[in-house]
Amino acid sequence: MANTPITVAHGDGIGPEIMEATLHILKEAGARIDIETIEIGEKVYLRGNSAGIDPSSWDSLRRTKVFLKAPITTPQGGGFKSLNVTTRKTLGLYANVRPCVAYHPYVDTLHPKMDVVIVRENEEDLYAGIEHQQTAQVMQCLKLISRAGCERIVRYAFEYAVRNNRKKVTCFTKDNIMKLTDGLFHKAFDEIATEYPALENEHWIVDIGAAKLADSPNAFDVIVMPNLYGDILSDVAAQIAGSVGLAGSANIGSNYAMFEAIHGSAPRRAGQNLANPSGLFLGSVMMLVHIGQADIAQLVHNAWLRTIEDGIHTYDIFAEGVSKEKVGTREFAQAIVARLGQKPQILKEAAYQEGPPQSGAGVTSSKAAPKKDTVGVDVFLDWQGQPNDLGAMMEKVAGDLQLITISSRGVKVYPGGNPETMTGDHWICRYADKDGKPVSHAQIIGLLGRVADAGLDFIKTENLCNFDGKAGYTLSQGQ
Ligand code: NAD
Q1: What fold characterizes domain 4-338?
Q2: What SS3 class is residue 386?
Q3: DSSP designation for 385
Q4: pTM for the complete prediction?
Q5: Residue 139 contacts residue 133 (beta carbons within 8 Å)
Q6: Tens digit of pLDDT for each residue in 421-433?
Q7: C-alpha–C-alpha distance, residues 340 and 319, integer Å
Q8: How far apart are CA 325 and CA 479, in angstroms?
Q9: Phi and psi for 119 in degrees, rounded to 5?
Q10: What share of the chain is helix, strand, coil (3-state, %, to 5)?
């Protein structure tokens, strides 16, 4: 079988040592890989490249499509772009996969049986980075969630569960509040779950789900969630497993994938043969599965579990009475190599299934495009004053449309607002056709012309649309 080319970056701080240890284990285990090395991180940043990666390095990544990356140091001071964000966005790495596992009784943990995998959507949600200051007092961050994005990540989570002998997939959202965005994620989850009848599935509201995860992680197996919740809860889950220094992570896209440790470059530990290479090593195990070398992944992972069980520990997990031998980075890697072919006796054995690279590619929404009718418009205004005064002005400019409500930060303030509601300089005036008929672009432009003529400062509009007759917008509180 031909070797698989991969791109490797040794990174900064402890990066080079843990990468060397990881590659030593893979080589001794017979991993069928050809390595292309690129330089990223501090030196590249300090050469004046604000992205921390040279243009030529992208050529290697485009060629191999697989990136094993050691942690880097981001120099202090402004102007340096996050290499992780750049890589994720450039390569379209939509899924972040983070197994959070306890290794009790060998590594101290509050949750001895914890074995949870967090699958985080990596591209959408509030992280699209679309923010605007709309008025002196109000900022906006757009939360964008697409059906294709939801289907892709949810299917990835279910496929991951099948391949890794997992029993249940849980979805976390806040769709009791964000009915359209998180509602779409939940809906896609419910639909795709029906294609996997052998797996249990469930949905939790993210707040109580997070509390349950922190308290009783054994209740969960694979958890899939939108970007923001996943960002926060993947750190919480890794921390409560007790093994932040041991956790690896995969970032997967349709064409590319990146594997790494979740920790940083630990500069104070650099160059002393002290660092624990396990996080990067476990990232490389996910890489082996991804490139279709489940046999090698299983071999090295089981040897690693046996090493942990045998009490051969680096300083960060060494504990008197539990550990047997305190070793350095190189010696730890050698201990794993010496155990190739062995299996753990207490800890759960690693088992991976052969299969082609799992990318989630080929996912398409089978739904026919719904019929869209524009039935109204929200006009956002920057204005100071009392709701009833604004109401009178906005009634006057309504023309062939009807003013339905005015709201401030999502709470109705006109007509019949509550005097206790705090208002500011940000208002949303909702208009619809007087007879409930569809509203044309010309009507909206006419309305905006009258608003401008009245000297009012509109800052944006949002069309109100029905899709197959169903409202594609929410009502304001109190409407
Ligand atoms: P860190 O993860 O590097 O270190 C946190 C603590 O954990 C330190 O006490 C460190 O000694 C210890 N530690 C981390 N990894 C270890 C290992 N493998 N073995 C033993 N001990 C380990 O976080 P930090 O100190 O906040 O950040 C240091 C640098 O890393 C910063 O420049 C930061 O920007 C960068 N960073 C990079 C990445 C990445 O490249 N993916 C991620 C996080 C932080």
Answers
A1: Isopropylmalate Dehydrogenase (3.40.718)
A2: coil
A3: S
A4: 0.91
A5: yes
A6: 888 999 999 999 9
A7: 25
A8: 67
A9: -110, 110
A10: 35, 25, 40
Question: What residues does each domain of the chain span?
Answer: 4-338, 372-471
Mutate to test the pocket of ligand 1, among 45, 93, 263, 308 (most ligand atoms within 8 A of CB): 263
**Edge-to-edge, what's the strand order for the sheet holding 426-433?**
411-414, 401-408, 426-433, 372-382, 457-467, 470-471
Q: Whose CA is nearest to atom 43 of ligand 1?
A: 264
pLDDT tens digit sequence for 362-420: 455 556 889 999 999 999 999 999 999 999 999 999 999 999 999 998 899 999 988 88
Strand residue runs (E) in 195-344: 200-205, 222-225, 248-252, 257-261, 312-313, 325-326
pLDDT for res 358: 57
**Spatial CA neighbour of 82 closest among 55, 53, 54:** 53
- Domain 372-471, what architecture? 2-Layer Sandwich (3.30)
Which two structure tokens, joined as six digits, stand for 9? 């970056």
**Measured distance CA(310)–CA(324) in Å, rounded:** 7
Closest ligand 1 atom to Cα of 277: 18
User: For residues 209 and 217, is the Cβ–Cβ distance under 8 A?
Assistant: no
Choose which residue among 40, 42, 243, 265 to substitute to test ligand 1 binding: the one with the highest number of ligand atoms within 8 A of its C-beta.
265
Q: In this structure, what token pair is assigned to residue 177?
A: 């509040």
Please tell me the distance between residue 327's alpha carbon and the centre of ligand 1 in angstroms: 20
Ligand 1 in contact with 22 (CB < 6 A)? no
DSSP assignment string, 181-194: HHHHHHHHHHHHHT
Distance CA 373, CA 216 (A): 46
